[in-house]
Protein: Signal recognition particle protein
Organism: Tectimicrobiota bacterium
Amino acid sequence: MFEALTGRLEGIFQKLRGRGLLTEENIREGLREVRLALLEADVHFTVVKQFVERVRERAVGQEVLKSLTPGQQVVKIVHEELIGLLGVNHVPLAFAQQPPTLIFLVGLQGSGKTTTAGKLALWCREKGRSPLLVAADVQRPAAAAQLATLGEQLKVPVLTPKPGAKPVEIAREGLSRARKQAHDVVLVDTAGRLHIDPDLMAELKEMAAALRPHEVLLVADAMTGQDAVNSATAFHGGVGLTGIILTKMDGDARGGAALSIRAVTGQAIKFIGVGEKLDRLEAFHPERIASRILGMGDVLSLVEKAQQAVELENAERLARRIREDKFTLDDFRLQLQQVKRMGSLEQIMEMIPGFKKLKGVQPDERELVKVQAIIDSMTAEERRDIAVINSSRKRRIAMGSGTQAHDVNRLLKQFTETKRLMRQISRAGPQGLGKMFPGLRGS
């Protein structure tokens, strides 16, 4: 996400920071490169022009030029302006004071609307809500069946249309069923088209006028760049959006849609899709995204992901086993599974501040798969006590996991070192940590 833009901006700011004292000409030269980087990222040209002008006005002031760290000051200004461009604050879903909350999902075909309906249903359920999915797309034959399949996976009820029913009738029936069955959120998957046309807008307007939804969310494919922005403008003008969900953000290295859509439409991005799995939907936080774009990481989102993936009971059990020096490969495997639930390694690593600056370090999902395969090929006794694993057992484990003996050796060595370090940290206590890590003294 934003990989190409992040790389360009980091190079520009590194040059600015390396100059020491800055002149107005240095700043203008840097901002010309920022302008080109944003245009190459497919950010709307009007947005780029206004953004660069705002940064220039602030950056050539005396506060920056006379600062001891002018390069850092410019980066700070760009960061603040990026947050402003993306919307300043997170805008949550508007839930009705008197349930059920009615949410329309609109958008073009191929934007991921039906899948996003499933993701949003899961997100609502995890927040303690009781969602109902409504298949109101009567244009695409497979839409209702796809939504029904998603509902079955999620254990979320789905209302499928009766033959010949109109979308407005389907949505109204969904609202009625939600009231009877105590569902407090109704997610309506509306019809899309390959392009915006009068029939589509007329259908959506009729539904909105008849049912007055609390949210009308556009589902747009981030990878289509300015086409997504143009679609958002048309839908907002036609039916009146209350927010935007950008899908396929994990595959969008440029980020033009995310950086343009809020400024052009005035509507907040509320969620982003960051993967194909149903749990890969994130609330959109402008400040966190701006930090990711500038390579500063996103620690808050990383902590939230960890809290969702790691069950408190398992965490307490792990801490106790480490203290008692009983940490085994079974525990190690459990930790790997929890890390995988947080998302891809690449997504996790980009949230760690400074990680992208480490040259030659590239997270490899295959290594996690290989490690788990090796552990799964061991007996219960071997996982409990690696001391019993001799040469013949290593060969058997390697053969069973489709790896080599040296892969098994490397895992055992890494596990031994991890266990040793955990034991040291556990036994050190606050004072001992100061001895092990001098930088922690007095903190």
Q: What stands out?
A: The domain at 3-86 is CATH 1.20.120.140 (Four Helix Bundle (Hemerythrin (Met), subunit A)). Residues 386 and 407 are 15 Å apart (CA to CA). Strands lie at 101-106, 131-135, 158-159, 185-189, 215-221, 243-247, 269-273, 281-283.
